Amino acid sequence: MIKNxxxxxxxxxxxxxxxxxxxxxxxxxxxxxxxxxxxxxxxRLGIRLAATMDVDLHEPLQGAIREKLDELLAVHGxxxxxxxxxxxxPKETQFNTIYTGKFLKSFVAQPEYVLISxxxxxxxxxxNLIIEYLGTQPTPLFLRLAKKYEINLEEFLx
Length: 158
Description:
The chain is α/β, with parallel strands linked by helices. It is 42% helix and 15% strand. The chain contains 6 helices and 5 strands, in the order αβαβαβββααα. The protein has a 5-stranded mixed sheet.
């Protein structure tokens, strides 16, 4: 779903820029970095995930591009979380490219980084999610990050 929304946004940016070129007000190329639950949903981990309306962006978008993205998300019952960019993510978070267009490039955070963020910053809220993930053979990356950020995974199993 997110990839299709990004494709639509890029088409809009292309058309918008055609109209704005004579006035010299073209919209610049932009990047969208998606974190949080939406990034986990896009990763298709094979674990149960709560559906979410909010789409968390690692860095806020401004102006017309943000408005258009919000409009496109609304068609799917979603919206940009106004404070999503404030969510803590590990400083070394890696992103996978999900869309590259003429004016837009979009990325989703790799799931291990999102899960570490959830385990560290909202332990109680995400306890069941982390327990389920631990039951699926967590990746070595997840285990290294848990150690680095001093997350006691055994406490989730109590």
